[in-house]
Amino acid sequence: MQPIVVENIHKSFGDVKALQNISFLVEEGELFGLIGPDGAGKSTLFRILATLLLADKGTAAVNGSDVVKDYRTIRSQVGYMPGRFSLYQDLTIEENLNFFATIFNTTVEENYDLIKEIYEQIEPFKKRPAGKLSGGMKQKLALCCALVHKPKVLFLDEPTTGVDPVSRKEFWEMLQRLKTKGIPILVSTPYMDEAILCDRVALMQKGEIMMINTPAAIVAAFGKKIWAARADNMYHLLRDIRAFEGTESCYAFGEYLHVTLHTSPEQLKAYLETKDHKGLVITPAKAGIEDAFMQLMQEQNEAV
Amino acid sequence: MNNYAIVTKDLTKRFGDFIATDAITFEVQQGEIFGFLGANGAGKTTAMRMLCGLLKPSSGEAKIAGFDVYTQTEKVKKSIGYMSQKFSLYEDLTVKENIRFYGGIYGLGNQQIKDKTHALLQQLNMEKEAGHLVSSLPLGWKQKLSFSIAVLHDPSIVFLDEPTGGVDPITRRQFWDLIYEAADRGVTIFVTTHYMDEAEYCNRISIMVDGKIKALDTPQKLKEQFNADSMNDVFLQLARAKS
User: Fold this and answer.
1) Does residue B127 belong to the interface with chain A, where contact is any CB pair within 8 Å?
2) Exposure of A176 by Cβ count < 10 A (0-12 exposed, 13-18 middle, 19+ buried)?
3) Are A178 and A187 in contact (CB under 8 A)?
4) Buried b / exposed e across A34-63, counting CB within 10 Å, b at 16+?
5) Distance of residue B111 Cα from the nearest chain A Cα, in angstroms
6) Strand, helix or coil at B91?
7) CATH for the stretch B31-42+79-241
C-alpha cells in the first residue's frame, strides 16, 4: 500500500484555481518533494492531505484512509509541520513537546528514540519559551512536535523557508536520517537546489504539476545544450547575449550566465568579440533542476 | 565627498551585555552591488538598521552618502531607498496610489510624481494594472513594484533586505535584471539574501558571523581564499566554524 495516493485533485478559491488535476503517489519510505514558488499550490495540497480543507474534486488517501471519510484516523496518524510556525510561543520547549504528546495520547518518553537526535540539540534551552528561540531552533522544535506521536506519514510544508544555508543543510541531514527509520516524508520547498536531496519530486507552478520524476531523470530529460558564459561586466554581457539573434534564452546562474542557442557557440563567440568584453569565457555546462524548471514554466506559459 | 557610498569604522551595537554588531569596518563604492550575508542572528538586521539611520550605534562611525548616522539621520533617510520582503507596499492601496504615496513621503512634486508614475509603469509593463489593488498582484510583481518604488526618489543607495524570497526562478532573475540596471545607472545596491547563487551576482560580499565581518571580497577571490567551488561552500565553512 502506498502511504500517499492523490488522484485528480482540484481546488479553487473563487476565481483562483489553486490546484488543478493533481495526481501522484508516494511510495513506502520515500522522501518526496513538492518543488515550486509561492502560489504553486503546495500548502493547499498539504491542507487537503492533512484533512483541514476539502477538495472540490478528486480523491486522496493517506496510509490507506480516505481524507474525507476517515479524517479522524488520518489526524492521529500523520505528523504535520505547517508553513507558518504554529507552536505555542508562550510555552517552553519542554511544555510544547509535552502538550503535543498528551494531545496524541502518548508521552515524550514512549517514542523518545525517534526525536532524541533532534531534541538533544535544543535540550539545553528546554526552559525557554518557544517565542524566544532562533529560526533554526524553532524549526527543530516544530519537527520534534510533529514526530512525538510516531506518525506513519510526515508532512513538512516549507520547513526551510527564510532559514540560512547552514540551518537548511542541517535540516536536510535530519530528514535523511529520519528516512532511514522508514517514515515516508512529503516535503515542500521553494529552493530548487533542495530538489536533489529528495528521492522523487513534483515540480509545481500555478496549481499544476509540470513533471514528476527523480531529480536525476529530470535533469537528464533537459533536451537542450547549455553554455555557461562569463565576462568582467556580467550585466553588459547579459544584455548583449539577449540581443543576439541566435539566443534562445539567457539567464544569470551564479557566477555564470546559462545560455541556450539556436546557432553554434562559435557564432555567439564571434558576435561577442565585436562587443569588446574583457575576460570572456564560454564553456559547456550541465543543466540543473532550476534550468529544467524554467524551461517547463516557459512551456506552461506558452500553452496558455 | 569621496567616491564611497558607505563608510563604517568599528561600528558597534550593544543590547545590554549582548553585542549584536561588533566593530564592523568596511566601505562600499558608489554604484557597487554589495552582498551582505550572514546566518540568521549574525547581526545583519541590526547593522542595516544603523546604516539606515533607524538605530543609534553604541560606538564607532558610519557615513552614508557622506552623512553621519549619529547627527544627520534625516539626510541619511532621504538619500536611501529601502525594501524588505516583509513590508513595503500598502496592500489596500492601488498600484498608482502606492507610487503617489511614496512619492509624497519623499517630497516629490506633483508633476514629478506624474512623470515617474508613467515611466515606472511603462518599465514594469504594468500600465493595465495601475488601478488594481496591490493585494491582487502576484508576489513577483509586488517585489518588482516595491523595488521600483524604493528607487523612485533617485536615492544614491538602496537597501534590499531579502528581496526575492518565495518567487519562481524566472521572476527572481527578472528582479535581478532591475538591480543590475539600477547599479548600471550608478545606484549603490546593498543586499541581503539567503540564495547563494545570488551572492555570486554581487561585485563584493561580506559574511557576518556572530556580529563580526569574517570575510569580505569579490565572490571569485573568496572562493579562491577558502578553496571552495561555490559561495555556498564558503558560507558553510565560515558559518559552521563557530559551532
Assistant:
1) no
2) exposed
3) no
4) bbbbbbbbbbbbbbbbbbeeebeebebbbb
5) 32
6) coil
7) 3.40.50.300
Which helix (H) or strand (E) covers residue A62, if one does?
Answer: strand A57-62
CB of A159 less than 8 A from some CB of B: no
Q: Which residues pair with B117 in a beta bridge?
A: none
* Cβ of residue B36 closer than 8 Å to a chain A Cβ: no
Can you tell me the distance from the alpha carbon of B71 to that of B90, in angstroms, rounded to the nearest whole number? 30
How close is the nearest chain B Cα to the Cα of A1, in Å?
34
B-chain CB neighbours of A192 within 8 Å are 169
Q: Can you give the pLDDT at residue A152?
A: 95
Mean pLDDT of B10-25: 96
Residues in chain B with CB shorter than 8 Å from the CB of A36 are 168
Domain A4-220 sits in CATH at 3.40.50.300
Q: Structure pTM?
A: 0.90
Q: C-alpha grid cell for residue A12?
A: 479553487
ipTM surpasses 0.90: no
User: Sign of the CA dihedral A79, A84, A86, A89?
Assistant: positive
Domain layout of chain A by residue ranges? 4-220, 226-286
Which fold, A226-286? Answer: Alpha-Beta Plaits (3.30.70)
Residues of A in contact with B179 (CB under 8 A): none
Are A165 and B220 inside 8 Å of each other by CB?
A: no
Is A7 touching B (CB cutoff 8 A)? no
Q: What is d(CA A182, CA B49) in angstroms, rounded to the nearest whole number?
A: 46
Q: Place B139 in a pLDDT band, splitting at 50, 70 and 90.
A: confident
Contact B169 A205 (CB under 8 A): no
Residues of B in contact with A255 (CB under 8 A): 200, 219-220
Query: Tens digit of pLDDT for each residue in A65-76?
Result: 999 999 999 999
Residue-level length of chain A:
304
